[in-house]
Amino acid sequence: MIMVLIYLFSGLLYSEPAKVTPLYRLLHPRPFDVCTNNSIQLAADILDTSIQVKTVYFYVLYYDFAPSSEYLQRDSSGIQPRLIAQVSKPPYEVFWDCADIPDQDVWRFFFYCTIEDTKGQIHTDRSATVRHLVLDRHSEFSKASIESHYTSATLKIDASFGDWPTIKPINFMNNNNLIETRTMWDENFLYLAIVVHDENLRGQRNNSIPARMFDCITLKFDMNHSRSHIQEQDDRGIAICVNDTLWGLIEVPDGSTMKATQFLKTSLIKVRCLGTLNNDKDKDTGFIVEAALSWADLGKISSNNDSIGFDVFNTDNDYGKVWRIGKGFSGTELYNNANPTEWGTLVLTGKPKIKLTMLILIALLVTCMIFIIVSKKQKKSTIPSQQVKATKSSSEILTERICDYVKTNYSNPQLSLDILASGMNLSSTHIRKTLKAVLNQGFSEYLAEVRIGKAKEMLLKDKSKNITQIAYECGFNSSEYFTKTFKNLNQGYTPSDFRNTNS
Predict the structure, then answer these.
(1) What is the C-alpha separation between 397 and 415, in angstroms, rounded?
(2) Mean pLDDT of 428-456
(3) What is the residue-wise DSSP string for 212-273?
(4) Three-state secondary structure call for residue 465
(5) Burial, 293: exposed, middle or buried (Cβ in 10 Å; 0-12, 13-18, 19+)?
(6) Which has the closest alpha carbon to 327: 150, 502, 68?
(7) CA nearest neighbour of 335 among 139, 112, 138, 71
(8) Are 326 and 334 in contact (CB under 8 A)?
(9) How many CB atoms sit inside 10 A of residue 268's CB?
(10) What is the SS3 assignment for 45?
């Protein structure tokens, strides 16, 4: 009964607030802020001027999992959130020392206010709650790693491991469970063989509580190994439960909330239960997971010696003893396992080298392509030098004006060729032709280069800002489009890769 109540109340935190005019707005912190020290600034702006404010109360909700039990701080069923400060006169600001709580990932950390007026009435407005914050005060990355060995064999996915070679597993403990993990790969799939030794198996009885709240294995992937604090478009999460229930979600920021998208299409996963579920009278052995995850589903082309952000996370539910305990091979726990900076590394190893004949064919192909490109360049007609000089002089002057305008207004997300033309009292066609003639670029290409150039400066100059903040300040409407543009202009490097490489 307690489990059902806790699950039902958790929906209050994850559900979207009603769209009404808020009583107040939290100026600090904001959604998707990353808090990296023990002092967090909270500041509220009272929007409802009809309220005669006496006191503003600041509250925090977070997860604090003790070694032997899970304690949920929530404002329901008599379990009160934590009051951290109260301010009786403007500005309604305070600094909170959070040294006594563990780090929190993007799903666990919430702030909100209540307002007491001069008549003693309390005003609340959950639509103004600030969600999806990250608390991470440990700058070092996880050093946990696991090797995935190349295989040329075709594996049968039946949760028996009959065709697996002898591979030393990576082991870790969660509560009283021992988890063994082995992995292999080929050009089409990433293979995983996981054994969970668990003497008390608990699975979903009905649909009132999700199966992932019981005994399960969750696989976490940061495919580009960008180590962002908040999951990005390339990150994947797969929850595999003891009763063979499965989730495969991409969870990324969408405005002020998170958006989840199913992605599993061509992968194969099998689970074998070694015992009886929900039976306290017997002693179980555990459960087995065998998976062939397609690189197409994971959104990656495999290559030898490639590294992927990775975590294997076990959730253990010994009902009546421990409600729910979680641990990952990289050291993550239930309160921070959705933070990719805490995940370990999976390294693809052992693929045979390309044969000499293949290398010769590749060299011949490259030579032919170079010959074709050079031949085409030699055939291009040229404009007489005097004509070029006469045209170039006027075009350069106009190009300098265009460049100055763009460098001044690049942070405006609405900046377009039409807005530029209007601001300079020129036709968009004339501007387009001028940029093409002088820079050999279109307007969108040049604007993207300016914005990415400014973003690089900010990534190195101000490391307190996260990727999403920098994207918006450089004129991008979303962090996903910013990351995609950055990679296109920087040989596949993400903003996080660039910051980490040059730090």
Answers:
(1) 21
(2) 89
(3) GGSSEEEEEEETT----SS--TTEEEEEEETTS-EEEEEEEEETTEEEEEE--SS-EEEEEE
(4) coil
(5) buried
(6) 68
(7) 71
(8) yes
(9) 16
(10) strand
Structure tokens at 129: 């709650």
Tokens of 225: 């190994």
pLDDT of residue 138: 83
pLDDT 10s digits, 353-382: 555 556 677 778 888 788 777 766 665 544
**Could you tell me if 192 and 170 are in contact, meaning their C-beta atoms sit under 8 angstroms apart?**
no
Give the integer Cα–Cα distance in Å for 345 and 149: 14
3-state secondary structure of 71: strand
Q: Which domains does the chain have, with CATH numbers?
A: 2-135 (2.60.40.10), 145-349 (2.60.40.1190), 399-501 (1.10.10.60)
Q: Give the CA distances from residue 9 to residues 65, 208, 233, 316, 321, in Å, rounded to whole numbers and listed in that order.
A: 18, 12, 29, 21, 22
pLDDT in tens, 96-109: 999 999 999 998 89
Residues β-bridged to residue 290 = 193, 270
Closest CA to 241 of 285, 277, 281: 277
Token pair 């700058």: residue: 139
- The CA-based angle 301-304-309, given to 5 degrees, is 65
Residue type, 468: T
Look at residues 150, 151, 313, 141 and name the one whose alpha carbon lies nearest to residue 219.
313
Radius of gyration of the chain (CA): 28
pLDDT digits over 13-41, tens only?
444 444 567 899 999 999 999 999 999 99
d(CA 185, CA 419): 51
CA within 13 Å, CB half, 13: 24
Q: Is 85 exposed, middle or buried (0-12, 13-18, 19+ CB in 10 A)?
A: middle
Q: Three-state DSSP class for 96?
A: strand
